[in-house]
C-alpha cells in the first residue's frame, strides 16, 4: 500500500477508468461479521490479474480496498506494468467503491446479510 502526498498529482489516477473490475468468486466462509471478501479480476485489454477486495462493515458504512494477501503484489505489478503508475490506497478505495455498484457485489452482500443480519447496511 502506498500513500503519496503530492500537490501535482491528479485526485484520480488515470488508470481507474481504463481497468475493468470483474467478479470472480465469493466465499461466505472467508467472511466474518465485520469483514466481507470478494475475489475479482482486474482486466485491461487481453491481460488480467486476480485480487481480493476486502470490505469493512462499520455500523452503517462499508469501506473497501484491496486485501493485502498473496494476490496483492501481483495487482500492484499489474498496475505498474500496464499503466506505469503506483497502485495507491486511494485508488484501491475508488476501485472497491465502484465495484459496490455492481449486481455481483449486491448479490454477495445479500448472502452476507443473511448470515449476519445484525450487520445490515444501507
Can you describe this structure?
The chain is α+β, with helices and mostly antiparallel strands and 122 residues long. 30% of the residues lie in helices and 28% in strands. The chain has three helices and four strands. A four-stranded antiparallel beta sheet has the order 1-2-3-4. It is elongated, with a radius of gyration of 15 Å.
| Overall pLDDT | 90
SSE class: alpha+beta
Termini distance? 28 Å
The overall strand count is 4
State the main characteristics.
28% strand; elongated; disordered N terminus; single chain; 30% helix; alpha+beta; 122 residues
What layout of secondary structure does this protein have?
Elements: E1 20-25, E2 35-44, E3 47-58, E4 61-66, H1 72-83, H2 89-99, H3 103-115
In short:
The protein is an alpha+beta fold and 122 residues long. Helices cover 30% and strands 28% of the residues.
Amino acid at each position: 500500500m502506498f500513500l503519496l502526498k503530492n500537490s501535482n498529482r491528479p485526485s484520480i489516477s488515470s488508470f481507474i477508468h481504463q481497468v475493468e473490475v470483474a467478479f470472480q468468486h465469493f466465499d461466505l466462509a472467508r467472511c466474518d461479521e465485520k469483514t466481507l471478501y470478494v475475489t475479482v479480476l482486474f482486466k485491461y485489454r487481453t491481460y488480467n490479474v486476480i485480487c481480493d477486495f476486502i470490505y469493512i462493515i462499520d455500523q452503517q458504512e462499508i469501506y473497501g480496498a484491496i486485501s493485502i494477501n498473496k494476490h496483492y503484489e501481483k495487482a500492484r505489478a499489474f498496475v505498474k506494468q500496464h499503466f506505469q503508475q503506483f497502485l495507491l490506497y486511494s485508488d484501491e478505495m475508488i476501485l472497491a467503491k465502484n465495484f459496490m455498484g455492481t449486481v455481483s457485489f449486491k448479490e454477495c452482500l445479500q448472502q452476507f446479510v443473511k448470515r449476519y443480519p445484525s450487520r445490515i447496511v444501507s
